[in-house]
Amino acid sequence: MPTIRDVARLAGVSVATVSRYLNHKGYVSRETAEKVEAAIRALKFEPNEVARGLANQKLNAIAVILPDITNPFFPELLKAIDEQAERYGYNVLVWNARSHASKRSSYARMIRQQYLDGAIIAAHDIAEDEIARLQAEAIPLVLVDRPSAHGVPQIRSRNREGARLAVRHLMAIGAEKIAHLSGPASILPAAERRQGYLDEVEARPWFAPSLIVGGELSIEGGMAATEALLARHPDVDAIFAANDLMAIGALKVLHRRGIRVPEDVALIGFDDIPLAAVVEPELSTVRQPVDVMGRLAVDLLLRRSNARPKKKHPAAQPIERPDDPSSAAGPSVYELEVTVIERASTLRKNR
Amino acid sequence: MPTIRDVARLAGVSVATVSRYLNHKGYVSRETAEKVEAAIRALKFEPNEVARGLANQKLNAIAVILPDITNPFFPELLKAIDEQAERYGYNVLVWNARSHASKRSSYARMIRQQYLDGAIIAAHDIAEDEIARLQAEAIPLVLVDRPSAHGVPQIRSRNREGARLAVRHLMAIGAEKIAHLSGPASILPAAERRQGYLDEVEARPWFAPSLIVGGELSIEGGMAATEALLARHPDVDAIFAANDLMAIGALKVLHRRGIRVPEDVALIGFDDIPLAAVVEPELSTVRQPVDVMGRLAVDLLLRRSNARPKKKHPAAQPIERPDDPSSAAGPSVYELEVTVIERASTLRKNR
DNA sequence: GTGAAAGCGCTAACAA
DNA sequence: TTGTTAGCGCTTTCAC
Predict the structure, then answer these.
(1) Is A55 within a domain?
(2) Which of these, B44, B104, B215, B216, is most buried using a 10 Å CB contact count?
(3) What angle in degrees, to the nearest 10, is found between the helix axes of A30-43 and A4-11?
(4) Helix/strand/coil (H, E, C) string of B46-61?
(5) Where does the HTH lacI-type domain lie (chains A, B) (predicted)?
(6) Distance, CA of A38 to CA of A40 (rounded, Å)
(7) Closest Cα of chain A to B116: distance in Å?
(8) Is B24's CB less than 7 Å from nucleic acid strand C?
(9) Which of residues 23-52 of A touch strand C (CB under 7 A)?
(10) Which residues sit opposite B339 in a β-bridge?
(11) Pair A146, A205 in one domain
């Protein structure tokens, strides 16, 4: 492997000049540049990223910390992040919240040791104090779909609003008793969606708190919650699930019981994972713009740490939180618009 | 950030000694070790990975090149790889075959520039000559589910055998006219599965080549292929699909047409992606041991490049290929056992 | 057993 | 504009 030194020698200049040429920093005369260029080509020189990393104290790479890569939402997010990082010329390290950290060492440590530029955290199963530590050490951070003490930039969807849209959609097609399969209260998006549901139905005559059934945000969780729901309220005619996986679980249970969707019970989920369009009947849902979330996450992270972003995000709605003192330094919570996707599971009923 | 120098100073020894202590190389007396230890603790010293990378000419990281991270098979594989890499203390860079490479620069270049230890390639959409180049440069490589010129270690399932098992299973439950939805012939596993199907049915009186319908290995591909199949052979009573996604596509089409599964048509896929257990009816399939594939890939890669593996892989069946001259240096193709998973889509029919 | 010193390949003052 | 040189933080001979 030729080094910058070889290039310098062949071009008859100093390594400093080659370095300047390479990084477009400082002055390099036209002719010198050409000589350097020629030498680089002749030697097939490739600057060594690790050496630059050492010298610059940064490696042009970021970490993405995910809770569970096999949950279909995250590959989508990862893909978006990866593509955007690629545009900046950055590498992406994928860390599994469960298997990493605790084991080898803390995230802060891993990030420092490797001169990473920061981390995108989408894992709700990382403790708040771990986040606090990272922030205390001034490690650039962006949180996706999880909250934290103020100051850390956060990206998430308009969960509450999305839930309201979903419920209104169910009402619009004629639903008269709408239940909600809710996720763990400890997971913010789940809590927000629950609240959105409440916003819409609390005042209705038919509403009863027992129409809300909690469970894990998984297919199994959705199945269990639906069983419980049907035991209590055999007469529901619509269900809003906290996410698509739960909705799919609900679908399975309804199907087994011979309850038709959407004729007997209309069903809507949240996220719009690819699976939603695959099940039968196809699942209506509230779409989160994963791709925007991923791109924005990278932009925010790298903007903070150094690079210049290249695009605007029209879908992003940076909001000021009046109770957040840090907002003086710019908004720290970005909420993205969501939209209802109507599919067969909420096809207007003809009764 | 304290450096090794600070540690040395505080401990009253030289940096060389600290380094030796850190890497368990060379002799360090009991007492010296204790002093160093104390200094490290006192300073909260964390060795810098990038600097070690430079000095060692290796960064303890590998690249994983995937064709499409949103295809549910790959997150599973990635997870397994990630967990195993973690055990070795290695980092994983995830590269998307489509978006990377061509763009920035070649894989070979990226791997060298970053002192990576090698790459696991699961992308069938990487050209053979790209692989050849990597190998020519002696970059450690392991291929998963894709073939290549000999010499490069390859991991895959017993696709042909699995296909035979699937078809035999269909026969065992009473199927009398079995069709096959096959993937692109250019993708090796797809070709092997097709061959396995042929092995079992070619001699049957009911067999006709038109029972094989090609398509993409996706849900859409499965749908299209099924449409075509039904047009030709409305009387098929069983379908073996080249992978689960295609099978799910078939399921959708059959469902729309009012054809019952498994009563009218039995259906079996291949891979056992999580989705298979989610659709209705649940999909029978041939299971590939993704987790073993991932672990083995990491082991082979790192064994070649340096580290010592820690476990055996009982499911792995290294096979010698008599026509492969390189097998003198050890087997280069590992075929993993597969098993039929019986679910509702092939429940024995009572006619 | 331990330390001095020369790298690993590149960047960035500071001079010239 | 360009070159000299001192790092970046760690590893590794090679003496002692």
Answers:
(1) no
(2) B215
(3) 120
(4) CCCHHHHHHHHCCCCE
(5) 2-56
(6) 5
(7) 10
(8) no
(9) 23, 25, 45-48, 51-52
(10) B287
(11) no
